Amino acid sequence: MVARFEELAAYQRCLELSQLICEITRNVSDREFQKDIPEAANAAPPLIAEGFARFTDGEMIRYLRMARGELAEVQSQLQVGMRQKHFTKDAYDAACTLARRAMGTTTNLLKSKLRRKRRRRTNK
To answer: Which residues of the chain, if any, have pLDDT below 50?
Structure first.
């Protein structure tokens, strides 16, 4: 059982993604892009933390869904950034891999919470 949000794999992957996105966009000349993608990446970890702190499956599910939305935005922005040549292929590949991992762990946590919520509903 997880006692703190920092122990959640989804939180850890999202935090890693946030750090990497900030690093690879540091020298991007397009100021709007340089602001938008880190904002989305930086939004996911606190959403997971807030959902965890609310201490109910329903709230956690809600916040995990929002975190997944932010992660999808990052994935989309990575595509845009690569097409506009904002970063190298290596930086893009590393960020895409980490974004997929962050999305996967967040999705798995969401599925787990949804299953638990369904079980509790059927056991009443």
So the answer is: none
Q: Give the pLDDT confidence score for residue 124 in this predicted structure.
A: 67
Element (H, E) at 110: helix 89-122
Long-range pairs, 8-12, Cβ under 8 A, ≥24: 8/48, 8/52, 8/109, 9/105, 9/109, 10/48, 10/64, 10/67, 10/102, 10/105, 10/106, 10/108, 10/109, 11/45, 11/48, 11/49, 11/52
Rg (CA), the chain: 16
pTM of the model: 0.93
Do 17 and 40 meet the contact criterion of CB atoms below 8 Å apart?
A: no
